[in-house]
Design brief:
The complex is a heterotrimer of chains A (306), B (334) and C (308). Chain A has 306 residues and is an all-alpha fold. Chain A has 2 domains: 53 residues, no CATH class; 179 residues, MetI-like fold. In chain A, 77% of the residues lie in helices and 0% in strands. With 334 residues, chain B is α/β, with parallel strands linked by helices. Helices cover 31% and strands 26% of the residues of chain B. In chain B, helix 4 packs across helix 5 and helix 5 packs across helix 7. Chain B is globular, with a radius of gyration of 21 Å. With 308 residues, chain C is mainly alpha-helical. Helix content of chain C is 71%, strand content 0%. Chain C is built from 13 helices and no strands. The chains are: A mainly alpha (306), B alpha/beta (334), C mainly alpha (308). Chains in contact: A-B, A-C, B-C. At the A-C interface, helix 1, helix 6, helix 7, helix 10 and helix 11 of A face helix 5, helix 6, helix 10, helix 11 and helix 12 of C.
Chain lengths: 306, 334, 308
């Protein structure tokens, strides 16, 4: 078990390094990071001065070393727009995004998994058919469009829920629902197919042949095995929600990291963009690590490196 | 020896999108206390479905037992298994009738320890506490020949070899001292040397526990080593029932003859070609009004196509469902 | 005893009369059984049709502005007119035409993006799977790195750097989606390598090229086509997302994402600008998901037998 965990941590560190490399070269994709960051009206002299001040004229290796060593301790330079250090600006916004993604995940899990379970144990039933239809739609509807529709209906039309900001306790409902809907659909389908597949397995026939009570067979033999693929998906989806919330936060004016990213892009504030990109990637890698750990707890085959 | 299982005219069908599969078409047999009955047949002969139907283990949306009775005699009296409530049947399964299935890796739950998988039967049927069940499980592991049982209790199925896993499955089957153990192709998925070990294990357990065994297989070679009587099935029907030595020395059904001819043997002097039975197994979707083996039979004549042959007694405990008399070389006079 | 010459009875499986009606009924049963796949195909074909024949079926030039008729609601409203069935946008451009032309952008991005991703992914994945060892380790570390990051984040940041153009969008999707094709390809190649086909082919004397084309490629086609369908659906979705944020094709080009972005400003006053492109995206996405599900069932060789 220790070996598994250590190797996963090692992999994560390598991945983090990879992220730093990717992000570093991303900025230099167009050739000149300085002109990327300056506004369009800047004169060549201003750009040259900027380039010098930011150290873009130094050899690439030197720049990368500087960037990486600073990034590891959290120094991403100053935001061009705010003129204060970039990382604290990101951290300030973190709780809002975590609240949003967390609520979205909760909604997806609490609604999606039970529907999938019902569908798996009663395939062909009404709930199953309705559930699968809802799942399909949930994964097919572009969630930004759905967000606009729901705002029209619930906020503007009915006035039940707020459509922007984070002020009221109910503010999180609409954005979390929209963010979580694709995951909800995925969980319905995945749970259902996992239940159906496990139920057809030979060891379930063995459980029946032992004369075990149905309750025991479902809880101990079926569900525990169903949990295995679900854990993976839930972990990955949570990571996606954390990192992919930009559109939803933008629509609902939710003061999280995603909204900050959108603003930073608009301001061409690339130090801030980088800080967000690296930090978010780090957070996602960490969640993947936790997911791997949970996976090992549930499935002994992983623990023993089989 | 008292009779513990009496099966009469069992009929099981599967209602599928492609049509109705007539899996079992009127099977009858008896089982005495402590005896070993082998049910032999090829894939699709209905040998597994027969036993599964009796114990309510066939999936019931497509499958349905359409007729027959299966009287099981235990300490609780004699009851028809096919008429029992689901809960009563669950008490019988595992508690009085144990199962050994074919492929041990898929038969065991991969994420539970093998100790847990054995203990849960004990807690379920014998009301043992966790500690008592654990002690008993360790005893069982020893009796099936697994070394270091205290350590192995906490092990998972993937940590065992194929033969060891099958021993675990056997331990589960005998855990509650059942009266019958149904073994469905228990050695088919194992290496030949391990096969022999498992057969020996069964023999030893049979002696120690006085348990009756129903051994389902397609391999007549294994049967000779362990069975007291043999039921040969074809097309969902019984073809021949006989004590084991009589079957090998005096086979009366052309199908049995074919099966024996296909057996490689070390004891024949001259070189002998293995024979195979021409043709393919019957399509069970078509309900037949004649002998199911007629297409492939070297001895079939007009009457074979007109009626279904009933089981006829041809010797002591020996019955055959065939209109042709192999000994006399002509149609049987009935 | 001559039974071999006897004609089998009616209960034999050999001779059954197949009339034309029987054959049609058989085809009908197949279509009904796969009706969701059939629906998906038909839906998808309407989108393709719209994209290909846009100049012929769109009533107006999508770029033609007509400020006098700006923000007209759909025809069934009092203020609407049958001249512009779905209404007009804030600059007076016909919405129906823009939606039809928007299909071109979406399908182009989806198709070429998947083409690039599948080709590159196939190459990398096959090389990694077949050669193994260091090469495999290096390729898969890069693949896993990209796959572990949230896709939207990656795409948005790269788009922010590169700027707005159709080519950029195609390249971005093509390259960022390569890892998933690589991973699937590698998985299949490994499976085939371990399944013994290759060993027996080698021992029968087949050369590497022959092995690749006879054994590996046929097994790859099924999963890759299924994956391509789902990924194309995803790309269409993400292109709309990028457009919504103003990072996709330039604003004048009629794309569904751009339309959604413009519609956002007028959401309460004029929701139709957002409604039609959203429905179009949903229609396309749904059709491709249905299609992908059906393809997965049909092309999986293990399931094929069970379907009989």
């Amino acid at each position: 078990m220790q070996r598994y965990f250590l190797s996963k941590v090692g992999q994560s560190i390598l991945l983090l390094l990879g992220v730093l490399v990717l992000v570093f070269f991303l900025l230099r994709l167009t050739g000149d990071p300085a002109s990327l960051m300056m506004s369009r009206e800047a004169t060549p002299e201003q750009i040259a001065a900027f380039r010098e001040a930011m150290g873009f004229n130094r050899p690439l290796i030197v720049q990368f070393w500087d960037f990486a060593t600073k990034a590891i301790v959290g120094d991403f330079g100053d935001s061009l727009h705010y003129r204060t250090p970039a990382l604290p600006l990101v951290l300030e916004r973190l709780p809002a995004t975590v609240q949003l993604a967390g609520t979205a995940l909760l909604i997806a899990v609490i609604i999606g998994i039970p529907i999938g379970l019902v569908g798996g144990f009663n395939p062909g039933s009404l709930i199953d058919s309705v559930g699968r239809l809802v799942a399909l739609l949930g994964q097919s509807i572009p969630n930004f469009w759905l967000a606009l529709i729901l705002i029209l209906v619930f906020a503007v039309g009915l006035g039940w829920l707020p459509s922007f900001g984070r002020d009221a306790p109910t503010s999180v409902i609409l954005p979390a629902f929209v963010l979580g809907l694709p995951t909800l659909g995925q969980l319905v389908r995945l749970t259902r197919s996992a239940v159906l597949e496990i139920r057809g397995e030979d060891f379930i026939r063995t459980a029946h042949s032992k004369g075990l009570q149905p309750r025991v067979i479902y809880a101990k033999h079926v569900l525990r095995n169903v949990a295995i693929p679900l854990i993976s998906v839930i972990g990955i989806q949570f990571g996606y929600m954390l990192g992919g919330s930009i559109i939803i936060e933008s629509i609902f004016a939710w003061p999280g990291i995603g909204q900050l990213l959108e603003q930073a892009i608009g301001w061409r504030d690339f130090p801030l963009v980088l800080a967000i990109a690296v930090f978010t990637s780090l957070a996602v890698l960490f969640i993947n690590l936790l997911t791997d750990a949970a996976y090992a707890v549930v499935d002994p085959r992983i623990r023993y490196g089989h | 020896m008292s009779r513990i299982l009496e099966v009469r005219d069992l009929v099981t069908k599967f209602y599928t999108l492609d049509g109705t599969v007539n899996a079992v078409n009127g099977v009858s047999f008896d089982l005495d206390q402590g005896e070993t009955l082998a049910i032999v047949g090829e894939s699709g002969s209905g040998k597994s479905v027969t036993m599964m139907s009796i114990l309510g283990l066939i999936p019931t949306p497509p499958g349905k037992v359409e007729g027959g009775e299966a009287r099981f005699s235990s300490k609780k009296g004699t009851h028809d298994l096919l008429q029992m409530s689901a809960q009563d049947l669950r008490d019988v399964r595992g508690g009085q009738i144990g199962f050994v299935f074919q492929d041990p890796i898929s038969t065991l739950n991969p994420i539970l320890t093998i100790g847990e998988q054995i203990s849960e039967t004990l807690t379920r049927h014998m009301g043992l506490s966790k500690g008592q069940a654990r002690a008993r499980t360790i005893q069982l592991l020893t009796s099936v020949g697994i070394p270091d049982p205290e350590l192995r209790f906490k092990a998972y199925p993937f940590q065992f070899s194929g033969g060891m896993r099958q021993r675990v499955v056997i331990a589960i089957a005998i855990a509650c001292a059942p009266q019958i153990v149904i073994a469905d192709e228990p050695t088919t998925a194992l290496d030949v040397t391990i096969q022999a070990q498992i057969v020996d294990l069964f023999k030893r357990l049979r002696q120690d526990l006085e348990v009756a065994i129903i051994w389902i297989t397609h391999d007549l070679g294994v049967v000779a080593g362990i069975a007291d009587r043999v039921l040969v099935m074809y097309g969902g029907r019984p073809a021949e029932i006989s004590p084991v030595t009589d079957l090998y020395e005096n086979p009366q059904h052309p199908y049995t003859l074919g099966l024996l001819g296909a057996l490689p043997r070390l004891d024949t002097r001259e070189s002998r070609r293995l024979t195979s039975i021409r043709g393919t197994p019957p399509d069970l979707l078509i309900p037949l009004q004649h002998c199911p083996f007629a297409w492939r039979c070297d001895y079939a004549f007009d009457h074979c196509w007109e009626a279904i042959p009933p089981l006829l007694t041809v010797g002591e405990g020996h019955q055959v469902a065939c209109f042709y008399d192999l000994k006399e070389g002509g149609p049987r006079d009935v | 005893m001559a039974t071999r010459e006897m004609i089998p009875r009616a209960d034999s499986m050999l001779d059954v009369e197949r009339t034309l009606r029987d054959r049609l009924a058989y085809v009908g049963r197949l279509l009904w059984r796969d009706r969701s796949g059939v629906i998906g195909v038909l839906m998808f074909l309407t989108v393709v049709f719209a994209a290909v024949f846009a100049p012929l079926i769109a009533p107006y030039d999508p770029l033609e502005q007509n400020l006098r008729d700006a923000k007209m609601p759909p025809a069934w409203y009092a203020e609407g007119s049958w001249e512009h069935i779905l209404g007009t946008d804030n600059l007076g451009r016909d919405l129906l035409s823009r939606v039809i032309y928007g299909a071109r952008v979406s399908l182009t991005v989806g198709f070429f993006g998947v083409l690039i991703a599948s080709t590159l992914g196939l190459v990398f994945g096959a090389v990694a799977g077949y050669l193994g060892g260091r090469v495999d380790a290096v390729i898969m570390s890069v693949v896993n790195l990209i796959l572990s990051l949230p896709y939207l984040l990656v795409v948005v940041v790269i788009a922010a750097v590169l700027g707005r153009s159709l080519l950029n969008v195609i390249l971005i999707f093509g390259i960022t989606d390569t890892p998933i094709f690589a991973r699937v390809t590698r998985g299949e190649v490994l499976r085939i390598r371990q399944s013994g086909y290759v060993e027996s082919a080698i021992s029968a004397g087949a050369g590497t090229v022959r092995i690749i084309f006879d054994h590996i490629v046929p097994n790859l086609i099924g999963p890759l086509i299924t994956l391509a369908t789902f990924e194309m659906s995803a790309m269409i979705f993400y292109e709309a997302g990028l457009g919504f944020l103003g990072l996709s094709v330039p604003p004048s080009v009629p794309s569904w994402g751009n339309m959604l972005a413009a519609g956002r400003k007028y959401l309460t006053s004029y929701p139709w600008l957002s409604t039609w492109p959203g429905l179009a995206i949903m229609w396309t996405s749904l059709s491709m998901n249905l299609l992908g599900d059906w393809l997965r069932d049909v092309l999986d060789p293990r399931l094929r037998r069970a379907r009989k």
